[in-house]
């Protein structure tokens, strides 16, 4: 049984990001991999070692502050689980929060959880639009698409980027990187949501989660024609 | 000065003619042109009313509410000006007055009922003085992201504060709207819906605002209607749903429309509206409240509501070879959820058409589609024969349905609207139900007008007063 944990779905339910959780669950169910969903809301307790896939999204400023305050209480147990190989997907605000700090336009530094080595600086204009990136999963190169909308610009320290920008802005609109990866933690600015039409990435996350539980086998192939055609529609538009 | 106004009106009217000849809708262009010729055009035209001005603002339901109000006023024998096409920016409002103006800038009306976009509201009230302002609801629209909802509420609140001698008509069930009564200090009339039995709702639905607009504490709910609408209270500061002055109960939905009891000042009446969709009852209650405020007789309000015809894409009805066809505009998760609930409330089998565009006016980011509770469809699959996905993001629409659990064998992708609509109409189900985002709506309506007959509503019996 794989346990999927959606962090603060009550607070961070506004940007279509629950599609990521839906995609992970459905692609397990379609393969008869037993899976359960845990929704963790503020003030509740959880043992991250019993979680197989953790999803953390973003919200409006107010909601993000509430989530940051609550997550601070779970920081040590989360860090431990991540070092142990917990599979995490973190989008936008959640991505920023896992890093070192966020520097506001006034130069004030709001500390993040400090689990990954990246930091974010408020930018002058929001980076908004469709994105295509190229990422490498287990030696296989795939092209993923999504939609970004972020005011913060993120710079990576000792973590790898998730992918290389083919079209759009990515982390900061300057260095051509998008997202971050540390161990089994994957961060990205791509809404859309990211997982449903980038099914190879979803399957990669499922594989990693199974491997962490000592199950190392090929996933049953699925009919991915809907996913491919949704992704290709955007790739054709962006990469012409 | 009259010369300037006249020049502006003539300029506006000419631009409207030219634009229509060129095939455009020209709904706000005359306003743009006239305002450029004479910036006080709107101020001068709108000040000529014999009685007063009513404005309707909020996220969803503006067009329907405004058209219902206009219907009630017309039933009462008043001359009414209203922007029925939903051109609700300041240019559209200006254009609406120009259309009814003589070439010399004279316009003769008793009431103007104007739907006004939330963001344009402060600008419009600087030029037009409303006597009544209706606020329908505040939801996250596909274009407002990242806390912009809070900003929208602030903008409307501030503009209301600056008005004098205005009465507010507020949705008691929406905490974001209801707070405006006390926050602005104006006279307020509240409308709301009592608890409804047997409503199908899932917890997955996005609630836009769960926090007290006064103190920030999480709100407690006795019940929800949809989104954040319901019976709420704050344990910290005591803010709670105001007692509605106009309250709807006992709602029933049929293929011909909605019926409900409305209680007001100790008496209860029956109203009937010839449009489906539970959310339309809120619009009817708001219009009812406005009618009462303006001392319009009850029987007149009732017949005004019955005469209401849905505007384009607001549960607009057509007939294709005897089969009922519905066209519904969708622009945000809340509206889509209500549309799905309406689809499922209709009897018999359905063919469903879903057009998703990602042009600027639709919102380029279509992530909001994943906040819509399409999962609810899977509980009624036996009645849902086919799903035809269309528009610039047809493939994404199909993907959303697949992940909601709709069998892929029932889903077809046809990017061309014309071919897709034809396919949906030719389905074997008893009704066809069409959803379209903003920029897909007009072309879809055009196609429907060619392929099917636009249905004029028939009267469904006399309103009963009890
Ligand atoms: Zn409060």
Largest sheet of chain A: 6 strands, mixed
Query: What is the total number of structural domains of chain A?
Result: 1
**If helices are DSSP runs of H or I spanning 4 or more residues, what is the number of helices of chain A?**
7
Q: How many strands of chain A?
A: 12
The termini of chain B sit apart by 54 Å
* Rg from alpha-carbon coordinates of chain A: 17 Å
Instruction: Characterize the overall form of chain B.
Output: globular
- Under CATH, the topology of the largest domain in chain B is which? UDP-N-acetylmuramoyl-L-alanine:D-glutamate ligase
Protein chains sharing the most extensive interface: A-B, 32 and 32 residues
Cα end-to-end separation of chain A: 43 Å
SSE-based structural type of chain B: alpha/beta
**Coarse morphology of chain A:** globular
CATH architecture of the largest domain in chain B: 3-Layer(aba) Sandwich
How would you classify the helix and strand content of chain A by structural class?
A: alpha/beta
**Count of domain modules of chain B:** 2
**Topology pattern of chain A, helix = H, strand = E:** EHEEHHEHEEEEEEEEHHH
Low-confidence stretches of chain A: none
Tally of contiguous helical segments of chain B = 15
Strand content of chain A: 25-35%
* Strand fraction of chain B: 15-25%
Description:
The complex is a heterodimer of chains A (240) and B (466). With 240 residues, chain A is of the alpha/beta class. Chain A has a single domain, classed as 3-Layer(aba) Sandwich (Rossmann fold), CATH 3.40.50.880. In chain A, the strands form two sheets. A six-stranded mixed sheet of chain A has the order 2-1-3-4-12-11. Chain A has helices at 18-29, 61-73, 75-83, 93-98, 194-197, 199-212, 225-238; strands at 2-7, 35-40, 53-56, 87-91, 101-103, 109-111, 118-137, 140-156, 163-167, 177-178, 180-182, 185-188. Chain A contains seven helices and twelve strands. Chain B folds into two domains: 2-306, UDP-N-acetylmuramoyl-L-alanine:D-glutamate ligase; 314-454, Protein-Tyrosine Phosphatase, Chain A, CATH 3.90.190.20. Chain B is 35% helix and 22% strand. Chain B contains 15 helices and 18 strands. In chain B, the strands form three sheets. A nine-stranded mixed sheet of chain B has the order 2-3-1-4-5-6-9-10-11. Chain B is globular. The interface between A and B is medium-sized, with 32 and 32 residues.
